[in-house]
Amino acid sequence: MADLTINLAGIKAPNPFWLASAPPTNTGYQVQRAFEAGWGGAVWKTLGEPIINTSSRFAAVHFNGQRVAGFNNIELITDRPLEVNLKEIYETKKRFPNHAVVASLMVEPKREKWHEIVKRVEDVGVDGLELNFGCPHGMAERGMGAASGQQPDLVEKQTMWAKEAAKTPVIVKLTPNITDITVTARHAVMGGADAISMINTINSLAGVDIHSWNTIPHVGGKGAHGGYCGPAVKPIALNMVAECARHPEIGVPISGIGGISTWQDAVEFMLMGASGVQICTAAMHHGFRIVEEMIDGLNNYLDEKGIESVMELVGKSVQRYSNWGDLDLNYKVVARINTDTCINCNKCHIACEDTSHQCIDMLTGASGNYLEVREEDCVGCNLCSIVCPVDGAIEMVEIASDLNPMSWNDRQRTLARLNAGQTEMEVV
Ligand SMILES: Cc1cc2nc3c(=O)[nH]c(=O)nc-3n(C[C@H](O)[C@H](O)[C@H](O)COP(=O)(O)O)c2cc1C
Fold it and tell me: Are residues 246 and 227 in the same domain?
């Protein structure tokens, strides 16, 4: 069996599946049960100044039969006294010395506040700290969470203050509610972050009740924007992880978060540069036991691939993620319909005819109607294979080309050299 242990900036855990800072990590009782179930680590529900939470605070987006495709919340940080949390962290760490227990922290952007809380949580034996610069609601209105996470200089300064007092590794948790997450990630690194984690939740309103006209959720008839997470946000989170992983000036380990529900999702995040993952919504939806399937699935996958340690996956796909301008414009695929498995639902024809390039013909042969792609007109957009309800009935196949690979950037460089007076022979 492969080695599932991970090391994220010096924080070790028996496997890469950690619970993210959220309701599942609210108490020692929960975190200890999670460790018993198999989770490798937990980032404690964010500690900070006492707050009061609203009643009615979660909502979900159910899409086309799938419950909780997305999850929305207006919950704030922990509403339990710091002393109680510290006592339970101490007890948990004592019972599970080899599991990762990370304290998530959020305080006002003041040096002495950071020094004080870092010292207090380190005194009870945490393995690391996660600075929460991400929560988009409630705390942001008080200058914390996403409000400081959206200001790169504040991210840097606060990371520095936490680092001044910290003896354990500092992870900076970033908000996705920003134009370019690599900017805040770089400032976290400039402030001394040992690692970064992403994403926290995305600004959202889950819905409006079309009968009562109230927001979903609402608190006595009033709503406020919340944070979106769950399966729907995975592509956004994966891109942000990948952008940070491939950025030459970031270079610190990444803890991947956002929409992870299966071992396959975790593998994708690790291939794109995450050294481990954190999970919230999937645990809230299905309970702690989902980790068993994740561990089994990951073990089987690594064994099948002959990979000895899960850490070998980290970053293996990063070099395959590039800028659009570096993509080969001479690479070509076309759709091919397998008439043996096609059920003639015509969804591909309609999609192509109405919204793509009108290259799927409806033909009639000896054995009835069939669909065929006019390959010379197919641009290889994939839409037909996406809408096709039968796996494998439409295959996208590569068309061999005599042309050399040429990207937009290559083309611009060639044009610039021709404009500068070089001949075509010289340019080639
Ligand atoms: C109800 C709820 C409360 C959360 N509270 C916190 C929190 O206190 N601190 C924090 O850093 N993130 C918090 N999060 C964000 C999660 O840690 C995580 O970043 C986010 O949910 C994305 O992961 P997921 O798609 O697996 O849920 C919360 C999320 C939810 C759903």
Answer: yes
